[in-house]
Amino acid sequence: MEDLLPQLAAVRVDRVEASSDLLRITARTWDDAAAVCPGCGTESDWVHSRYVRHVADEAVGGRAVVIDLSVRRLYCENSGCPKTTFAEQVTGLTVRYQRRTPALQHVVNAVAVALAGSAGARLLAVLHCALSWATVLNCLMRIPVPSAAIPRVLGIDEFALRRGHRYATIIIDAATGARVDVLADRAKEPVAAWLRTNAGFEVVCRDGAGSFAQAITDAAPHVVQVADRWHLWHLLGEAAHREVLAHSACWAPLGPPIREGRRAQSTRERWQQVHDLRDQGVGLLECARRLNLALNTVKRYARHTEPDRLIRTPQYRPTLVDPYREHLRKRRAADPAVPVTHLLAEIRELGYTGSANLLVRYITQGRVEADHATLSPRRTARLLLTDPAHLKEEQAALRDEPSAACPEMTALATQISDFAALLTPAAQSRAAERLDRPDPRGRPAFPALFRHRPGTRPGRRRRRPHPALAQRTHRGRQP
Q1: Residue among 131, 77, 71 nearest 107 (CA)
Q2: Which residues have CB under 8 Å from 357's CB, separation 6+?
Q3: CB 3.0 to 4.6 Å from 313: which of 146, 147, 248, 455, for a disulfide?
Q4: What is the pLDDT of residues 192-251, one digit of tens each?
Q5: Contact 353/359 with Cβ under 8 angstroms?
Q6: What is the C-alpha separation between 378 and 240, in angstroms, rounded?
């Protein structure tokens, strides 16, 4: 018995009863053994009474195990102890206020950590330990959180408890990714208080949030603040998308033609009005009042030197006609006057299941004769940000077209490639030299693109990159 259940070595086993699904063991503690008072640590063998505890243990042979253990209640012989009586505990078998052995409790805790609630309760039932989901959660909540050592490099970032409403702060070991602590808020004060309490770190890897920067400066001004690759690449993606959007008039002819309608005409008229007032020396705020426009709208019109750059390229969703575009293109090139009904009959034989109205709209929008079906600003930016080694042949050709649309787009593609090389440690020095060069139009070097334009993303915090780099990247993207 002691070999099979070593936790019973310190007690006397009186009886073992086995049934089809239960193994019941009756045991009792020894009468002449002294016990230690949990209040003062004094040994005592002065017996007050006995009572029986029913303790569940790990299953044996596919049967649940219950130990009916008779234990003593003893008097404490120390007159100054606040406890008059106490119950003896058997090491490895009983714990105060617990009806499971330490070995079984270890199994329950492991299942609770892995599965929690209902899933954990179902697995424990298979292990012949019947517990409710609420009990499993209570066991999970009672597990003490291990105190993690403060690493040399900390990582601080926010995460959403409820997106747009509640955010918290997570602190990790930037080298291993292990969680160090979680704060209930992302404000400056809790972060600064935690940094003051937990010393020993030398570097803090954070995002561009101003509250984190100020908290680190206030609590530990001597530490080095750095940004990781993921945040730098994320900011690069946002900056590249803004630049691609600003130059959409340059690469838009590569796709479906821009619609010349009331919206385009209104855009040109407003651009002309704003620039006429600016030429007269009128300020931006006064322009907004006279034209009854928002200040950020006036800034956007004043910033562009040509009205066509304010006219956005049309954005079309994929349609059922897209797979048959090449067939339509060849037929219309061979016979520009071919009726739409003939084209509809031909592509239906090829498997087209859409309507005739969809085909007519597709043709009138100019999507058949365009160099490609549709090219949105976001897709263009994604092509520029993707590592050329991960692009297919047709994607690489599609990437080269907008890159050569204008000098600014060419400079943007070059600077994205240089910045990606900057994130690679072996090429940092060469890339840094290339990024210091201005572009052909005399505009600032590419890092200036990280500045957020006022009013473009209300409610978002302003972020700025930092020169030192850490380690995260997106799979499939540069670098």
Answers
A1: 131
A2: none
A3: 248
A4: 999 998 888 899 998 877 888 899 999 988 889 988 888 888 888 888 888 888 777 777
A5: no
A6: 9
